[in-house]
Amino acid sequence: MTSIFKSSSYYTFANILPQAIGFLFLPVYSRYMTPGDFGIVSAMETLTAIFSIIVCLSLNRAAQRFYFDNNDAVLRKSMLSTLFIATMVLSFLFLILALIAEPILQLIFESIDFYPYFLFCIVSVALNSLSLIPIIFYQVSEQPKKYVLLHLSRFVLQILLIMFFVVWEAEGAKGQLKAVLISTSLFVPIYLYIAYKNFGRHFDLTLLKKALYFSWPFVPTLLVAWILNLSDRLFIERFLDLTELGVYSMGYKISMAMFVLTSAFTMAYTPIFYKLANSKNQIEAKKTLYQYSTFAAIIFTLIAFFISLFSKELFDLVLDERYTKGCGILRVIIISHLLSAIMSITS
Asked: Quick check: 248 and 271 in contact, CB under 8 A?
């Protein structure tokens, strides 16, 4: 139990600090970004989540799974190297296909221009896919300090660029998406260095096939989940307007505090789960996993309750009055975050 709380504290810090800083900047966003601008950013963030599932075919989940199947350091490096190279190839193919499919993608959000908004989103996803295996490596090898350093350094750069383009240059949604693209691009050499230093350049087609057999069934499930998340923004943009989408997105953004808190525990829990699942004493392992899951479900429920309880005060104190209608939205969405968090540790 001590190890999971120790690791969880690092992941919590790495995930909560950016979110906390993001909350501190929400008054700035609400002042310098119209609800319409915020709606564009939200729509592109949703597409980013969907594209991220497609581009890597959930190979990062395969890295989590197969890392613990073998204690041989050489085989582990070979597996990670294979998945990293495969991710690079898939990201390049995704970039080309997405640009070719411009007319089709434009139909998703008709009121948002493909250039520059969709383009910034697509390139950011392709480049960010190179971070998946290095980040997973730090997680599965239980190096939370390096995970924190990598995660926070990129966030600090991104938030500085957002402040420059959104506040100083007053570029609105374009400025925020541009900041994300630039910060992602600048970290690509770091991901390549991490991969080269820790994985090498070995590629094993047999290992890749094995990983794909495990990872591809996740893709339809994840896509369905994110398409459901996309559909609300699509209907709001299509039948209302980007202003209403921005108000909705602000409520959703604040509700993500619940997701950040619960995902920090889940990230620390994942490698420990696989260790216990592969242990010889399955009776003791199941008992321990049951204790972890029950404890987490109780804590998650309390977090959701307190966020909902003080949501109105949060909106009144933090945001511009143009966004205050998002309070009611938060209270509904927080329930879905709670159910999702409980499912993530029990399924």
From this structure: no
Between helices 35-56 and 119-128, what is the axis angle to 10°? 40
Q: Who's near 149: CB < 8 A, 6+ residues apart?
A: none
* Contact criterion met (CB below 8 Å) for 25 and 101: no
The pTM for the full model equals 0.78
- Specify whether the CB–CB gap between 179 and 158 falls below 8 A: yes
DSSP secondary structure, 115-182, as one string = IIIIHHHHHHHHHHGGGHHHHHHHHHTT-HHHHHHHHHHHHHHHHHHHIIIIIIS--HHHHHHHHHHH
Q: DSSP secondary-structure letter at 114?
A: I
Taking the chain (347 residues) in runs of 10, the rounded mean pLDDT of each run is 54 66 76 91 87 85 79 83 93 94 90 93 95 87 81 89 92 94 95 89 86 84 73 84 88 81 75 78 84 87 88 81 84 88 80
